[in-house]
């Protein structure tokens, strides 16, 4: 895996993990004022969720990198079989 592929894989993993962490710890506004959405969170805690998504993504990316480099699963051979 070259540097560009590694970055693309990390960004994809990060966004998936970030969207998975968004619903955790959400409390809706009990009585929304005029113009407020009833489903809007009181405190979204975005900064904490970005940090958690980054840490989880690092662990998952290292696992994906190890799997790709270990030749346990040969992605090159899979690609060759698909084209035949």
Structural features, described:
- By secondary structure, this protein is mostly helical.
- It has one domain (3-83).
- The protein has helices at residues 3-21, 46-70, 75-83.
- The longest helix is centred in the last third of the chain and has 25 residues, at 46-70.
- The protein starts with a helix and ends with a helix.
Index terms:
63% helix; single chain; 84 residues; elongated; 3 helices; mainly alpha; 0% strand
What is this structure, in a nutshell?
With 84 residues, this protein is mostly helical.
Low-confidence stretches: none
Global outline: elongated
Fraction of residues in β-strands: under 5%
**Class per helix and strand makeup:** mainly alpha
Give the helices and strands, then pairings.
Blueprint lengths: L2 H19 L24 H25 L4 H9 L1
Helix pairs in contact: 1-2
């Amino acid at each position: 895996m070259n540097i560009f592929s590694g970055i693309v894989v990390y960004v994809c993993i990060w966004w998936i993990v970030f969207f998975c962490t968004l619903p955790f710890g959400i409390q809706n506004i009990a009585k929304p004022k005029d113009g407020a959405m009833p489903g809007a969170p009181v405190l979204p805690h975005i900064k904490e969720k970005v940090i958690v998504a980054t840490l989880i993504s690092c662990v998952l990316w290292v696992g994906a990198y190890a799997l790709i480099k270990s030749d346990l699963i040969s992605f090159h051979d899979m690609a060759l079989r698909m084209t035949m």
